[in-house]
Write a structure and sequence with these properties.
The chain is an all-beta fold. It is built from no helices and ten strands.
C-alpha cells in the first residue's frame, strides 16, 4: 500500500510562508484526488485543500486566497504553499488520497508535519 510522508513544517511568524510536501511511496497517478488536512489541539481534523487528477482545486474558506495546492505526478508529490500565515493556522498537517470523487480518504495517516505560527 502506498505510504505518504509529510514534511516542511516549522515555526514561522505571523504573515510568513511555508511550503509543505507530501511524498508518496508509489505512483499518485491512480489517485482521483489528494487532500491536505490539518488538526489543531482539541479540534477535529479538517480538509483545507484538495486537488484532483485533472488539476481542479478546492479550498476551505479559512485558507482560500492564502494557500495553494499543487501536485507533481513525476515526483509523486503534492505540495501546499501557505502564505500570509495566521496563528489560527497552527496545527499538524496531513495528506491523504481518494480513489473516487465521493470516496473516503483511504490511506493510512502519516505522522504529519507540525506548523506553528507565532503572533
Amino acid at each position: 500500500q502506498v505510504q505518504l510522508v509529510e514534511s516542511g513544517g516549522g515555526l514561522v511568524q505571523e504573515g510568513g510562508s511555508l511550503r509543505l510536501s507530501c511524498a508518496a511511496s508509489g505512483s499518485i497517478l491512480s489517485m482521483y484526488a489528494l487532500g491536505w488536512f490539518r488538526q489543531a489541539p482539541g479540534k477535529q481534523r479538517e480538509l483545507v485543500a484538495r486537488i484532483t487528477s485533472g488539476g481542479s482545486t478546492s479550498y476551505a474558506g479559512s485558507v482560500k486566497g492564502r494557500f495553494t495546492i499543487s501536485r507533481d505526478n513525476a515526483k509523486n508529490t503534492v505540495y501546499l504553499q501557505m502564505n500570509s500565515l495566521k496563528p489560527e493556522d497552527t496545527a499538524v498537517y496531513y495528506c491523504n488520497a481518494q480513489k473516487s470523487s465521493n470516496g473516503v480518504y483511504y490511506l493510512p495517516w502519516g505522522q504529519g508535519t507540525q506548523v506553528t505560527v507565532s503572533s
